[in-house]
Design a protein that fits this description.
Blueprint (H helix, E strand, L loop, with lengths): L1 H48 L4 H26 L6 H18 L4 H19 L8
Helix pairs in contact: 1-2, 2-3, 3-4
């Protein structure tokens, strides 16, 4: 009986942490939406002024997709009943690594290693998950 009382007393703390986490994620998603639209405005501005620097444009597009990926991950967190799917983290890692390769293209050996990292992340992303049945 004493164990049940201690568990019931600790539930308020778990609920408090869950509310703090959810509130923080909602605030973070609002901030990310602001930066997402700011990046979209920068891309449109570059298109209108005729910026022909491919690396600059691709870097901005990939930053846009990083923001989009983080926002979709927060949405997925609420859809999946407060769990982050691993595939979204892999997706963000792939996107961030590709962006780094495009933006920092001065070191070919480093880009080779980063390409191998992307390959490993993509293989991990597409591996089927086998569920164990007991």
């Amino acid at each position: 009986m004493a164990v049940l009382d201690r568990l019931n007393k600790g539930k308020w703390l778990i609920k408090f942490y869950q509310v703090m986490l959810n509130s923080s994620l909602i605030i973070l998603s609002c901030v990310l939406i602001f930066f997402l639209f700011r990046e979209l405005c920068n891309i449109v501005n570059d298109a209108l002024i005729g910026n022909y620097n491919v690396h600059d444009i691709l870097g901005k597009v990939l930053v846009f997709f990083l923001y989009f990926g983080f926002i979709s991950m927060i949405v997925e967190y609420f859809k999946e009943n407060h769990h982050f799917p691993l595939r979204n983290l892999l997706y963000i890692g792939i996107t961030a690594t590709i962006r780094f390769i495009i933006v920092n293209n001065e070191h070919p050996l480093q880009n080779l290693w980063l390409s191998l990292v992307v390959l490993v992340l993509m293989v991990s992303y597409f591996l089927p998950i086998k569920r164990l049945k007991f």
